[in-house]
């Protein structure tokens, strides 16, 4: 029996696009910016925030973002790092203004997930997702 060949999408697909962007990076800041941009685009998040733990004091350093900084982004990221699993933000309070494109407003979900490498938490990825986003399917 021969192995079946899976043809990649014409644009290479999301991982290929991210790999190409990463191959073009020269600095850690470039890497963070590429991850934030591609994660947001392919997950469908309106905001993406990438945090890394400082080696000396364990504090989180903002190293990349796409869109404005969502409310409570640092607090959610710290909770995800401490707990070792995702941290969901509270439902937004109704302020009368629809500010979904800014990461808050009716139905917007804010979540942070820890970034774990070799069993150690090295940072967190924060996302703001609009209502109806099917990111679980991606």
Provide structural commentary:
The chain has helices spanning 13-23, 28-43, 73-83; strands spanning 47-53, 60-66, 87-88, 109-117, 120-129. It has 138 residues and is α+β, with helices and mostly antiparallel strands. The chain has a five-stranded antiparallel β-sheet. Helix 1 packs antiparallel against helix 2 (28-43). The two termini are 31 Å apart. The model is unreliable at 96-104 (pLDDT under 50).
Strand order of the largest sheet: 2-1-5-4-3
The backbone outline, from C-alpha atoms, is: globular
Report the span from N to C terminus: 31 Å
How many helices? 3
Give the integer mean of the pLDDT values: 77
Estimate percent helicity.
25-40%
The string of secondary-structure elements, in order, is HHEEHEEE
Radius of gyration from CA coordinates = 17 Å
Structural class: alpha+beta
Instruction: Determine the strand fraction and express it as a percent band.
Output: 25-35%
Counted beta strands? 5
Residue ranges: pLDDT <50 for 5 or more in a row? 96-104
Summarize the structure.
28% of the residues lie in helices and 25% in strands.
Describe how the helices and strands are arranged.
Blueprint: H1 13-23, H2 28-43, E1 47-53, E2 60-66, H3 73-83, E3 87-88, E4 109-117, E5 120-129
Helix pairs in contact: 1-2
């Amino acid at each position: 029996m021969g192995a079946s060949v899976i043809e990649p999408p014409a644009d290479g697909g999301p991982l290929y696009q991210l790999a190409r962007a990463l191959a073009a990076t020269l600095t850690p800041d470039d890497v963070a910016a590429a991850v934030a941009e591609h994660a947001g685009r392919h997950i469908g998040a309106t905001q993406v925030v990438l945090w890394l733990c400082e080696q000396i004091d364990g504090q989180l350093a903002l190293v990349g973002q796409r869109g404005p900084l969502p409310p409570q982004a640092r607090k959610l990221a710290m909770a995800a790092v401490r707990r070792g699993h995702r941290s969901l933000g509270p439902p937004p309070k109704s302020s009368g203004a629809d500010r979904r494109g800014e990461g808050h407003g009716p139905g917007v979900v804010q979540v942070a997930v820890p970034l774990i490498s070799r069993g150690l938490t090295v940072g967190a990825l924060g996302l703001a997702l609009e209502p109806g986003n099917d990111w679980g399917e991606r």
